[in-house]
Amino acid sequence: MLTEMMKLEGEIPNFFMVWILVVASLSYCHTVGNLTSPGTTRLIAILPVVFFFFYLPLNLTTIFLGGPSSFFLAWLANFKLLLFAFNKGPLATTPPTSIYHFIPLACLPIKFRNDPKTPEKKTEHPAQRISNSKPLPKGQKSTLNYVIKALIFATSVQVYHKKQFIHPKILLFLYSIYMYTGLELILALVASLARVFLGVDFEPQFDEPYLATSLQDFWGRRWNIMVSKILHPTVYEPIRKISTRALGRKLAPLPAVLASFFVSAVMHELIFYYIGRKWPTWELTCFFLLHGICLAVEIEIKKAFDGKWRLPAAVSGPLAMAFVVATGVWLFLPSLMVRCEADAMAYREYTAFTEFMKSVSNFVKVNSSFLILAGK
């Protein structure tokens, strides 16, 4: 426990230093965008930052700080910067986005629901719209929704303590639930903090994926929506254009879908490396390629029937989710839990953080008592 506390105490200054460097690097990219034209020149100027963002997560070793940071930097920020080099994506706006909005947009899983340059009406602040009793915008979650997911996630500690008494497959199924609820809570927290400081609404990152009616619905509209929207212009659209010339418009989406899932697989393998510092065993890649192939088949079947016949959502939805969960337990979760030992890492860090906060609280109490006695 002492080792974990020392590790956490060393991680916190590293975390702040990493993000200070991120802010400085993105400030440079913002300046580059104002001084260069889109294309090769801007790309050459931005590429050092892209390589730097691949390196920065190596300075973090905890799952709670290093995991999200590697996702934000190596994947989201780098892909957005590559789009920005060619005047595409959320960072490319006319007139240019202010640096105040450029930095969080570049490195966080957020997208403005409304134009950040459009002033809000003085009669109502965005935070007020969220907290009042009016109907929530499409995709916006209620506080109760997040409370329920937080309570579900809170049971993970007890499950970890009792895991030797739980069947391995059931345990992985429970971990899949904790992974989803944990991700949604973390991303919602990031978006909420950004909402408070920037004063704008953001699009949701998840849209109740367990309600998906098909694989296409799950991956394209409900699961980690920001990643889907980043993969579409960076991978799907360019590959589809190339494939159209080689295969024709009818078959062009198939290699584009497979390429998108392959890139997603590579980025997941990289993030898992950042977390566990262990070389990939490629089950994760197999998971995404399998889903890419099945999604491509699903798209072609839908085209063949041309909307004339489709399984009822009450049937197709459970089938799709059963496939996602079964393949996740088979290929995805073992990479995270066995290769990276994410559950053990998370528990050790949670315990170390709890002990650290207790020591801080005791230190504050002792010093407060000392000051009170000294004042008397």
TrEMBL record:
GO terms for biological process: lipid metabolic process. Residues 203-289 form the Wax synthase domain. Residues 129-139 have a biased composition (Polar residues). It is found in: Membrane. Residues 117-127 have a biased composition (Basic and acidic residues). The keyword Cell division does not apply. Keywords: Acyltransferase, Lipid metabolism, Membrane, Transferase, Transmembrane, Transmembrane helix. Belongs to the wax synthase family. This is Long-chain-alcohol O-fatty-acyltransferase-like. It comes from Pyrus ussuriensis x Pyrus communis.
